[in-house]
Amino acid sequence: MKLKSFIPDKLILMMLGAVLLASLLPVHGEAAEAFSVVTDLAIGLLFFLHGAKLSTKEVFAGLTHWRLHLLIFSFTFVLFPILGLLLKPVLVPLAGNELYIGILYLCALPATVQSAIALTSMAGGNIPAAVCSAATSSLIGIFLTPFIVMMLIGGQAQSIDPTDAITGIVIKLLLPFIAGQIARIWIGGWVARNKSWLKNVDQSSILLVVYGAFSHAVTEGLWTRLPIMDIVGLVVACLVLLGVVLLLTNAVSRLFGFPLEDRITIVFAASKKSLATGVPMAQVLFAGTASMGTLILPLMLFHQIQLMVCTVLAQRYANMPREQELAPQS
């Protein structure tokens, strides 16, 4: 087991730096309003590039493996939210009510694309199915996540207006994404050739949202009302949630008789939640609310925990002889 598996990735370190900067030098007043406009433009560019990068052909080509994808999407958009509600008696005492709302938000998000595919590849799983599932999950999430969020936390987040939220998702996320899909005809090759540095656009957009969200939260007294033990409890809560999902994905995929390569794909694609989609979407759904900082904090922690835990698990899968399978989890 390599020490590198437990070192936070560069994006997480930069996000922690943005949180620290917001805590020391929060943007506020008229500057905050201008900053919000810049952030919205950056998010629009982010989803435009997502649309330009996503191959529609890849998505439809893999949909024939419908049993696998149906199971993954059921975990991502049905089981995760149900677990968030069922585990409330455990999660609330650990993290507190305010952070629990953020846990519910992360439960509503689509799966990540890059890490799900990378981990499936590392573990020796079904890579084409992982590509299809992750890409389709990201696309479906644009439509489905806002409705799941409304069902999970709409009653507890009175600042969210359903009409405004859906309109915001369409204008700020969906339309740029569709524009990117259309523009893919002309710029798809260029995007593919330059994806190594275009990822900076993704990261910059996320960092802008994190800094703006925590600036607003800090000026509203975030660190004075959020006990340190709640943050420690949040780490434990994320571990509990991820652990339950990993056990269930492994057990259910065995129950349905999937071969090992498909089970690997199911485990890694169904247990992930997207930071790249979740943070910008929070900016649209919860813009201007004092609680936005606490809403994305669980997602930030869960993202890093899922990378560390699943990297170790992927190494375990990779080192197994192909005729051997993991022993059933108890």
Describe the structure.
- It comes from Marinobacter salinexigens.
- Keywords: Membrane, Transmembrane, Transmembrane helix.
- The chain is mainly alpha-helical and 330 residues long.
- It has a single domain, classed as Na+/H+ antiporter like fold (Up-down Bundle).
- The protein has helices spanning 10-24, 30-53, 56-61, 66-86, 88-107, 114-123, 127-153, 162-193, 195-219, 222-225, 228-255, 260-270, 275-285, 292-318.
- Helix 2 crosses helix 8 (162-193), helix 4 (66-86) packs antiparallel against helix 11 (228-255) and helix 11 (228-255) packs antiparallel against helix 12 (260-270).
- The longest helix is centred in the middle third of the chain and has 32 residues, at 162-193.
- The chain starts with 9 loop residues before the first helix and ends in a 12-residue tail after the last helix.
- Residues 326-330 have low confidence and may be disordered.
Brief summary:
The protein is mostly helical. Helix content is 79%, strand content 0%. Helix 5 (88-107) packs across helix 11 (228-255) and helix 7 (127-153) packs parallel to helix 12.
Strand content range: under 5%
- Give the helix/strand class: mainly alpha
For the biggest sheet, the summary is: none
CATH fold topology = Na+/H+ antiporter like fold
Radius of gyration: 19 Å
How many domains in all? 1
Cα distance, first to last residue? Answer: 22 Å
Pfam families: SBF_like
Transmembrane segments: 39-56, 68-87, 99-119, 131-153, 165-186, 206-225, 231-252
Protein name: Bile acid:sodium symporter
Organism: Marinobacter salinexigens
